[in-house]
């Protein structure tokens, strides 16, 4: 959140309260709030505490109760207190990366099939330099990889973690790769996988969604925007199969209020998705409509790809 403005503006579309409600709908129990632009506030502990108190009052007024919420001062512009403690912030001993590692328990799923989401990509000579977050599995130099949903094959020629050249990287690592293959640009939010478990693009799937739509009604065909690790796409509910108690099959014409439903979703463009039970990161998503987060969901069945 933007600590300088002291109104909890966030760095992406959506208010602080909107995001808190979204996390609550997704059953998130641990939250880290990064207070940004602390360099503009001269790393003042008093100003930091003022923002924290304001944030806690907003959370309390929303009725949301998290098991664990932690606040950390950072500067996104200068990169201070992100990956190492800041010398100018003597009153805070931890950096953002320290907090993330502490709260995640350090678990890394290196045994699952490779999934790396690309955050940045630039062309270089006969190849591309891509960087991103490895969600699952291991990747090594000279590996043959598949980029989805474009489904093109590339070879890893060089790897870097931070400023160090490496031979391999695994789940949890932020990694930069030089890959060579077809003369095609690799886009942001594409997903790198291995030939044994292809990162296939999906257009139609079933999901369980939890909605909080007191100000609107969602019907079949209502245009929404779906967000997940592998990008975002306009979408609609093609079918609303039941609502409320799972053993009572109700087929409502619309959904409103706070409700859980099983739906069939159709995307305007393919995204790499997985069933939530097996692909934790790529199996979850958020839904937005009219610039408001209206709920979250978990993929239960892939219908078409």
Automatic annotation (TrEMBL):
This is Elongation factor-1alpha, putative. PANTHER family: TRANSLATION FACTOR (PTHR23115). The lineage of its organism: Eukaryota, Amoebozoa, Evosea, Archamoebae, Mastigamoebida. Pfam families: GTP-eEF1A_C. It comes from Entamoeba invadens IP1. It comes from the Eukaryota. GO terms for molecular function: GTP binding; translation elongation factor activity. Residues 205-300 form the GTP-eEF1A C-terminal domain. InterPro entries: GTP-eEF1A_C, P-loop_NTPase, TRAFAC_GTPase_members, Transl_B-barrel_sf, Transl_elong_EF1A/Init_IF2_C. Keywords: Elongation factor, GTP-binding, Nucleotide-binding, Protein biosynthesis.
